[in-house]
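Hi R.,

As promised on Friday, here is the backbone we talked about, encoded as structure tokens. Could you run it through your design pipeline when you get a chance and send me back a sequence?
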């Protein structure tokens, strides 16, 4: 025969397990609502698009970074008071570079489906340059953060790692491999 203390312990364990299940369900429900909200908030902006994508529609403020193919500028659309990042790439006759630019533009187009990736606003070109206009994610890069703090707490490492993994996982689900 089972003792009273064992029965109580088993009831407590069952109650604890049920509470944990309820908490998990609440957490999952709140995450789903958050994902729904963020995907609704991140839908491509269509109503107030500029009639033409021309570089004079943007006001440039500063250089955010330099890369292999060009520079990234902080810019804004004065009529919308929205800050954006504009990647400016000097066009060359090399086919390989053209493919890289086109691929990046296609990726930015599908990025709006994930809250862990920067959303693309526009891609256009002139005779000499290609322009990729994307969401401005202020706050700097992870590399800059590490340069300032020199190390991160375990919870921050887990948080940033999870965000990176979710972004890459979304791209993989679309057949896009990030190198």
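Update: got your reply. Pasting your designed sequence below so it's all in one thread:
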């Amino acid at each position: 025969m089972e003792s009273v203390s064992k029965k109580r312990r088993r009831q407590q364990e069952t109650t604890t397990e049920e509470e944990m299940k309820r908490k998990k369900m609440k957490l999952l429900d709140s995450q789903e609502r958050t994902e729904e909200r963020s995907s609704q908030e991140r839908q491509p902006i269509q109503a107030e698009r500029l009639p033409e994508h021309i570089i004079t529609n943007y006001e440039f403020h500063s250089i955010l970074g330099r890369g292999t193919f060009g520079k990234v500028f902080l810019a804004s659309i004065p009529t919308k008071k929205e800050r954006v990042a504009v990647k400016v790439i000097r066009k060359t006759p090399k086919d390989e570079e053209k493919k890289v630019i086109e691929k990046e533009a296609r990726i930015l187009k599908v990025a709006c489906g994930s809250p862990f990736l920067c959303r693309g606003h526009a891609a256009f070109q002139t005779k000499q340059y290609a322009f990729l206009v994307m969401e401005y994610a202020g706050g700097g890069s992870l590399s800059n953060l590490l340069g300032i703090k020199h190390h991160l707490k375990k919870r921050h490492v887990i948080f940033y790692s999870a965000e990176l993994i979710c972004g890459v996982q979304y791209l993989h689900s679309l057949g896009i491999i990030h190198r």
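One thing I noticed while checking it: The longest strand covers residues 82-90.

Thanks again,
M.
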